[in-house]
Target: phenylalanine--tRNA ligase
Amino acid sequence: MAEKAVLGFLEKNEGIPDSGQFAAECGINHDELVNVIKSLHGFGFVDSQDIKRERWVLTDEGRAYAATGSPEVQFFLAIPTEGIPPEELQRKLNPSVFRIGRSQAMKNQWVEMGKQRVTRKVLNVEDTVKDLLLRVQDGQAINPEDIDALKRRKLIAPQIWKGYSIRKGTNYAPERKKAATDLTRDHLQRGDWKELEFKEYNFSAKGQPTEGGHLHPLLKVRQQLQLIFLQMGFEEMPTNNFVESSFWNFDALFQPQQHPARDSHDTFFLQVPSTTKMLPEDYVERVKHVHELGGYESRGYGYDWKREEANKNLLRTHTTAVSTRMLYLLAQKPFAPKKYYSIDRVFRNEAVDRTHLAEFHQIEGLVCDRGLTLGDLKGVLKEFFSRLGMSKLRFKPAYNPYTEPSMEIFGFHEGLNKWVEIGNSGMFRPEMLLPMGLPEDVRVIAWGLSLERPTMILYKIDNIRDLFGHKVDLGLIKRNPICRLGIE
Ligand code: PHE
Model:
């Protein structure tokens, strides 16, 4: 309606000099008109120029007097022709009208304030204040002295008024057709599709983001590692048991029962069920024997091995527990060489910081064959890590209860331009392999590393909590590049 009025008016007139006046003449709300002008301006239908005006508006008090008359006139009219005792007059009027009315009426010399009686000094009075207020209310001009007087009595206050003057714009048309965005059944039935103006396609608008599943960086890196293992002829081990017994996690690995890693500070023990139900008894006997007394040319640890300790359930601290189970199974059949791998979760009761969580993913590989040597281990590691993009390796002697020799693996990271620790490795001890029943000349070379470490390096994440756990950065999970191992 306001839009029609503006465009219609401009069809026959030069322009609209004052939106305030125009609104008043057309009976349109000015705020509504302003919105229409802004929109028409935006589309080039009109050119508009700001107008700012200071104008006077009535205060609350001013509005009250405009309605009921000024206090001085109310005061005057309350005095009967014969006069009235002041107290009685005071009772007739409200206190502020009495107070203000009295002083103004006296100033105007309309009344005589006697001690006994208040009397009129003139016959008639005119309410000029009320008249002035009504004119201000109507937006009519009044002279500067009157403005001053009303301002001093706080009956009017200034207000900045904003409006526009407008003229036809470059896209002026007597009517703005709403551009259609869709061709509907109704358009076709009514036949008005012929006149429709369609909104232009915005080819540079971005489409809705597709919502769907997103692969976590750890999953991407894991998949690439799985491919490497598979290309190298490795088979995946079943790792679907986070809960393990101490026996498979530690004892079978020739890890003594007093070993600090078994301490509850590093290991999460289960309360329910707290112990395992079943272990292969004859094998348990051989493990007990090798711990206590040795055998297979070993002296053992010479301590009193406790079955209760081995029965305790825990969250596996490494996937080497899985490797151990697999090697034991292998030993139950006529020997055949194997290459095994796994990538899955392990749990350690560690203080959480930028690089540690209480759980992580372990990558584990092993080769089991007759007559393998440390040279074979180094060769396999070279092959494996070069496929990860690390062809320069260094080894440092290390200690694991279940491997001898043991080596920490360092790789030169071309991107970071430094040597970084990338894993742990070794040859499983005879004290671990022979009680299982594997042939004497069978050697097992193995290594392990975390999945988080290479993932953080590849994706340049320096806080593990951004990658995994309850503080994970969901933006990162939704938008991360494909994983390309071996290319920096
Ligand atoms: N289990 C070792 C660890 O937790 C890794 C490892 C696997 C070491 C195999 C040697 C051989 O770090």
